[in-house]
Description:
Layout: H1 17-24, H2 28-41, H3 47-53, H4 62-76, E1 83-89, E2 101-108, E3 111-119, H5 127-151, E4 160-164, H6 167-174, H7 191-197, E5 201-205, H8 222-232
Parallel strand pairs: 1-4, 4-5
Antiparallel strand pairs: 1-2, 2-3
Amino acid sequence: xxxxxxxxxxxxxxxxxxxxxxxxxxxxxxxxxxxxxxxxxxxxxxxxxxxxxxxxxxxxxxxxxxxxxxxxxxxxxxxxxxxxxxxxxxxxxxxxxxxxxxxxxxxxxxxxxxxxxxxxxxxxxxxxxxxxxxxxxxxxxxxxxxxxxxxxxxxxxxxxxxxxxxxxxxxxxxxxxxxxxxxxxxxxxxxxxxxxxxxxxxxxxxxxxxxxxxxxxxxxxxxxxxxxxxxxxxx
Length: 235
């Protein structure tokens, strides 16, 4: 809404017939209803404007309509949200089984919508393998999330990005020439490479310092822990 705008009840008895006809053709209640749903589900930044506009559902004018349209135009300038994954793994940190812990987190817009931290089912022979298997788990979740988002109308024509802080694992997902080094890795984990080849996913390197999945990997110093929490939107 425009700063300083004050809305008031409309006294229809003081309007001309033409003004009343113009108001009758305005789908104000329908528009405000849609904006209420957006404010509740994904756009808390318009909460105040909608609280003001919804008070006049039975007594609105062209001024109220223009204010509602201004909110819509503001939403139109909002950057489209994107689905981004973050994946990480330790390596053989379990002293009993020498299995690694794989983690991932998926964010949509500014919020994390899915995350997991699980011990891997097999022992990884290197940190590259551990990270590769963690990325596989993230990719499985991604396929489900993409299907869900497409079902509710999101455009996901471009490849979804998974951020990984291990260059070797990133290269392994894209370069088939490296396959000879990991022939012993379970075939199911190469599902990841197949999805990259089909342009559904893309694996990109991210500095460990900025990888929010690191929160699920190991105890962190308080400054870094607090920083990653802020990136997650938790503080």
